[in-house]
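quick one: fe (ii) ion bound model?
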Amino acid sequence: MAPSDDATMTFAAQDAPAQARLERYIATRARSEHLVRDLSPEDQLAQSMPDASPTKWHLAHTTWFFETFLLTPNLPGYRVFDERFGFLFNSYYEALGPRQPRPQRGLLTRPSHERVMAYRAHVDEAMTRLLLSGAAGFEDLFDLGLAHEEQHQELILMDILHLFAQSPWKPAYGRGGLPGLAADPGPLGFQGFEGGLVEIGHDGKGFAFDNEGPRHKT
Ligand SMILES: [Fe+2]
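yep, here:
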């Protein structure tokens, strides 16, 4: 997922915003793959209920977002990885045509997990080129793409929790709990805080989903 040597060379000549964007992109995409590092391909295929999605689907769907909304319109000569993926990995974008029914995402034994990871690598390579190209005008969609990937990182954890709860083996997620967190978080306890009115909600600067605002007292 790291940029190629060529891209790294070009990267040095780019302005700071492009560099910052690429670093955010790489970090966000790597976090998704880190989250699933201890899940087998079988873990990543299963769908435990209609409202949950397989991990593999989440990994491909977030990739489809970047391909569809960033690369296809903005990177000249971009080659779509597989034309058939649009049907499989579109979620709710009615304008983009029909799609695999959500309750049946767990039936997608193909493409293989390996092929989905190749899809991610293909899109990451092209996104690196786009971000280093100096092209502009897609900053808001880029921010949305990263927030969307983070949203699906939460869904990956939520859905795998439900899946593992169905197993008679009751498997635990990950080798030592959540990646990036201490294996032993210490004893559970209460946390004290001051009462009274507090402000919550988005303050208007930077990206937010529409349900995160307006800022208000509660
Ligand atoms: Fe989504």
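The chain is about 50% helix and 0% strand.
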